Amino acid sequence: MLNLIVRRVAIAIPTLLIILVISFLLMHAAPGGPFTSEKPLPPQVLANIEAKYGLDQPIYKQMINYTVGILTEFDFGPSFKYKDRTVNEIIAQGFPVTMTYGVWSFIVAVFFGIPLGLIAALRQNTKTDYFAVSFSITASVLPNFVMAPLLILVFTLWLGLLPGGGWNDGSWQNLVLPVIALSTSYTAELTRLTRASLLEVLRSNYIRTARAKGLPERTVILRHALKPAMLPVITYLGPMFVGLITGSFIIDSIFSTGGMGYFFVNSALNRDYSVMLGITLLAGGLVVLFNLIVDLAYGWLDPQIRY
Amino acid sequence: MKHCMKAILLATAVGWASGPLLAAGAHPTTGEALADDQIFTYVTGDEHTSVDPQIVEDTTGAAIVRDLFEGLYNQDADGNLVPGVALSHTTNADKTVYTFTLRDNAKWSDGKTVTAGDFEYAWKRLADPETASPYQWFMEVMNIKNAGGVMSGDMPVSELGVKALNDTTLEVTLAGSMSYFPLTTTHGSTFPSPQWVIEAHGTDWIKPENIVSNGAYVLTKHVPNETLERERNPMYWNDAETIMEKVVIKIVNDENVALTRYLAGEFDKTGVPTGQFLKMQKQYPAEVYSNPKLCTYYYSLNMGENGPEALKDKRVRQALSYAIDRDIIVENILQAGQFPAYTFTPGATAGFSVPEVAAATMSQAERDAKAAELLSAAGYDKGNPLAIEILYNTSEGHKKIAIAISQMWKQKLGVEATMQNQEWKTFLSTKGEGNYEVGRAGWCGDYNEASTFLDLVNSKSGYNDSKFSNAEVDQLLADSKTSDNAQPNYTRIEEIIADEVPLISIYHYTSATFLKSSIKGWPHENVEGNWYSRNLYKVAE
User: Fold this and answer.
1) CB-based burial label for A212 (10 Å; 0-12, 13-18, 19+)
2) DSSP characters over B163-198
3) Residue A291's pLDDT is what?
């Protein structure tokens, strides 16, 4: 197992470097730049600004400077758009926000989605199952950019129960609506996945064998069916977790949470090179990390997998 | 439920307030009963770029800077100059040297006196290439002596034509005579900045824990992309007249969500979502406003080398302009009180009277007939249709206008107009490189004087996307800088624009806003949208 971890970390470094180089090149290939504006800056002013941010140097040099800055000082540079802030500050402020609502959404999705899927599979073709299936279909076709404004309309305007946005240092009132809006489709997906996976396992030969041995149904499910049924679910949970904690543009922009998802998308639109690269690398690093965690979980769930 | 919401809001409000709330009282001049909580909360769609007066470049940031800092002059509700840190100014005979007398009781929030030296420092800081300010060019707009040389690094910063003669006297030397110079001193980039704080904290000086400012408010809290708070500055020289204790920005990126939350009572001011003005005005007549704005929406016609051959023919450009029915665009598409535009400079601009250009006096039927006549004279007709491409940045609003205009051109002139949309920065870069035929554009004045618009058709202007070049226009613009009455020049330039049509003015903007009826003192008549929180107050309901 230690061997696996060492190997994966060793691969992670070149992976992140490749992500860095590709993002850097793609970003510079996009037309326009951070200082392109409707009132174009006079050439002299533009030259002064580009000199200040080092954009007057050749691309390979910019890339080397940038990489060296990260490796030696963990410095992701200044934001080109929000001139009084650095990328480190933007991430330090935005990441805890997305992390908080992301982790809560993850917990909600896992604690509702998986049990609902299990119950539906165990009571296939009953009313409970029909409810679970219709919930999961409805919730997955209802996009969160429709759901979020609806929640605000109902809970803020009509009922006056919860604030329609803002973060307020993460108070629970400000968390409720974003978490509902974000977790619903993931809950639906987990329900569907868990149900399908358990149904498939229940039809497999070793379950038939277990039942033929005369084991009680409880033991059959808990000891023999549950673990293998969880494999596809775990595969899904890793990327889902990363997706949740790196933020959602829609949640951030509709609920004004100040989270990282908004900065990520907007940095691309603003050609805010340094912010975009910083968040890309962070997200890339998290994907690598959670894929590793998922792989380790496989070893525990599936005895056929040995490292 | 309503009570519950109120309780939450009240609790939040109390939580926010760091000092005691102003007790209920009456307004000193109007006598209106004031609300207990003098807190003004408004929505902005995006985060400001900075609150550093010499760095800020967006209107959201500029509004914050106007509250935190105070320049030589302020504007009153109608946009006229009123004393700020400066009490008055004198000028020499040829208007090349302006001498400002500063008040001696203006203070920074740390108690230091605001001096002429703080202005000298700030202006030099703005021009200094090392500051790399995006508004560096404003020093050239102000026509300050040696601004160009300092900006390019060819001259030392000390050569800039600004000098503190003593603590209360600031002398500004211009490169040439300029009669409207004092108007430019209400712009945020000319506000003073505290050298000792900037030197102590570097770029972090504008963080709430470090900032020192000389305006009616001080910055107390900033959570990026969520909220910003400023509270009254007890050191401000005129603090006694400030009523609004605290001003809060909530950043809400989605205009419809902002409206829902406004209606739920979370904010005092928000924008009216596009296309909903008429409906909202009917529903909330006391809260919905449409105010003229110093901005023009226009199509620029590429007359440069990459532009199409057809647009080099004046008759084609004229025909395209005549055939656009501005009334339909304003009344049926925009529907928020915008003004049809036949001149580039908005009629709301101070000291500018709209000249009677030919198109403005005709009926649309006459314009259409004239357009058809001009285009066929240029050799285009239904058998040999003119093909042209409209480039605009991706947005529902721009798309609607582009569709309407392409249909007007098609029906009236048989023009085969195609539409192309591009993402914002791509669009700007395409247009900047001159790779377009007809391009959407918008222009807002930097100060309230017609030259901020008309400079755009100067052949040397970097904003002249049409690549229009006319010696008479250049000369008229140069002359108008020194003239006491530039209106005849402006009239003539507008006539040339109407005749040569380097650009098609389509409409002049309005800003449509929701403002709670309890908030008073809003300068609805200020066409630059320059408002100051210290003039606002909340009345008891």
Assistant:
1) exposed
2) EEEETTEEEEEBSS--TTGGGGGGSGGGS---HHHH
3) 87
Q: What is the pLDDT of residue B24?
A: 58
Contacts of B352 (CB under 8 A, 6+ apart): B345, B346, B449, B450, B487, B490
Cβ burial B10-23 (10 Å sphere, 16+ → b, else e): eebbeebbeeeebe
Query: What does the DSSP assignment read for B255-317?
Result: HHHHHHHHHTTS-SEEEPPTT-HHHHHHH-TTTEEEEEEEEEEEEEE--STTS-GGGGSHHHH
Contact A40 B463 (CB under 8 A): yes
Looking at residue A212, its pLDDT comes to 93
Helical H segments across chain A, by residue range = 2-29, 43-52, 59-73, 87-122, 127-141, 144-152, 172-202, 205-212, 217-219, 226-245, 249-255, 260-270, 273-301
Summarised one tens digit per residue, pLDDT across range A72-113 is 888 898 998 888 889 999 999 999 999 999 999 999 999 999
- Residues with Cβ < 8 Å from B436, sequence gap 6 or more? B302, B307, B389, B391, B430
Q: What is the mean pLDDT of residues B335-355?
A: 92
Of B8, B253, B429, nearest to A31 by CB-CB distance is: B429
Burial (CB count <10 Å: 0-12, 13-18, 19+), residue B245: buried
Report how far residue B368's alpha carbon sits from residue B320's, in angstroms, rounded to the nearest whole number. Answer: 10
CB-based contact A149 B250, cutoff 8 Å: no
Angle at the Cα of B151 from the Cα atoms of B350 and B98, rounded to 5 degrees: 45
Query: What is the torsional sign of CA A78, A81, A84, A89?
Result: negative
Residue B140 touches partner A, C-beta closer than 8 Å: yes
Residue B17: strand, helix, or coil: coil
> Do the interacting molecules here have an ipTM over 0.90?
no
In this prediction, residue A251 carries a pLDDT of 93
Which residues does chain A have within 8 Å of residue B1's beta carbon, measured at their own beta carbons? 159-161
Q: What is the mean pLDDT of residues A226-254?
A: 90
CA distance B349 to B422: 32
Q: How far apart are CA A278 and CA A272, in angstroms?
A: 10
Map tokens 């073709």 to a residue: A125
What is the rounded distance in angstroms from the CA atom of residue B288 to the CA atom of residue B271? 9
DSSP letter at B115 equals -
The answer to whether the Cβ–Cβ distance between B50 and A82 falls below 8 Å is yes
B251 touches chain A (CB under 8 A): yes
Q: Are A107 and A88 in contact (CB under 8 A)?
A: no
CA dist B365 and B385 (Å) reads 21
Q: Give Cβ neighbours of residue B198 (< 8 Å, ≥ 6 apart).
A: B125, B205
CA distance B216 to B237: 8
What DSSP character marks residue A304?
Answer: T
Query: Which of A48, A56, A249 to probe the B interface (max B CBs under 10 A)?
Result: A48
Best A44, A151, A174, A260 residue to mutate vs chain B (most B CBs within 10 Å) = A44
State the Cα–Cα distance between residues A123 and B264, nearest whole angstrom: 44
CA distance A117 to A123: 10
CA pseudo-torsion sign A128, A132, A134, A138:
positive
Q: Over the stretch A157-185, which tens digit does the pLDDT of each residue have?
A: 999 999 989 998 889 999 999 999 999 99
pLDDT attached to residue A307: 64
